[in-house]
């Protein structure tokens, strides 16, 4: 499956804002109002573009990436449409987002963090060449949770 990446549009923000993940994965639910505001501010160039919509061959929204350049590092965040998770699509989807980030930003390294309980995502990141560098606690909707910072050199 091929993907196209575009700055987050208002319609994508409205759609993704309605995505709901099951159980403990609900900490990854987007907030519609925040996403819409972000898309609008990016469109008006009042915020730098860091939110990108991932579209499939039909132009349907399948996920969102945040790509934030900090020096020579691009910090990556990723969210796949809930009905597509757990179906073996994650690694190819994630790699496509990294390829787009590499082309757009030419980073020396990628960094991300993931909730420690999220074995599915951690497995994808490890298969993509990321390695753990530290653990820390982050406040989430579910309270403080252990997170893992991971990096990959380019």
CATH homologous superfamily placement: Gcn5-related N-acetyltransferase (GNAT)
- Strand runs, count: 7
Proper CATH architecture: 3-Layer(aba) Sandwich
Runs with pLDDT <50, length 5+? none
- The coarse overall form would be globular
CATH topology: Aminopeptidase
Total domain units: 1
This entry's quaternary arrangement is single chain
Secondary-structure element sequence? Answer: EHHEEEHEHEE
Distance between the termini: 24 Å
The rounded Rg comes to 15 Å
Structural class, by secondary structure, is: alpha+beta
Q: Number of helical segments?
A: 4
CATH class designation: Alpha Beta
What is the topology, as strand order, of the major beta sheet? 1-2-3-4-5-7-6
Mean pLDDT: 94
Kindly estimate the percentage of residues that lie in beta strands according to DSSP: 35-45%
Main β sheet profile = 7 strands, mixed
Residue share in helix: 25-40%
Can you walk me through this structure?
Helix content is 29%, strand content 36%. It is an alpha+beta fold. It has one domain (4-153): Aminopeptidase. It has a seven-stranded mixed β-sheet, with helices on both faces. Helix 3 links the parallel strand 4 and strand 5.
Task: Please describe the structure with a list of short key phrases separated by commas or semicolons.
single chain, alpha+beta, 7-stranded mixed sheet, 29% helix
Summarize the structure.
By secondary structure, this protein is an alpha+beta fold.
């Amino acid at each position: 499956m091929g993907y196209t990446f575009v700055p987050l549009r208002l319609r994508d923000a409205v759609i993704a804002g309605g995505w709901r993940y099951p159980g403990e994965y609900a900490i990854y639910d987007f907030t519609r109002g925040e996403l819409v505001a972000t898309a609008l501010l990016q469109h008006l160039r009042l915020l730098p573009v860091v939110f990108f919509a991932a579209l499939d061959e039909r132009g349907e929204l399948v996920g969102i990436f945040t790509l934030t350049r900090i020096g020579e590092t691009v910090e990556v965040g990723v969210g796949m449409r809930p009905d597509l998770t757990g179906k073996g699509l994650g690694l190819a989807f994630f790699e496509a987002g990294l390829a787009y980030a590499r082309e757009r930003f030419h980073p020396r390294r990628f960094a991300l963090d993931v909730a420690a309980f999220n074995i599915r995502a951690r497995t994808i990141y490890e298969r993509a060449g990321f390695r753990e560098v530290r653990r820390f606690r982050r406040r989430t909707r579910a309270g403080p949770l252990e997170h893992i910072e991971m990096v990959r050199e380019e």
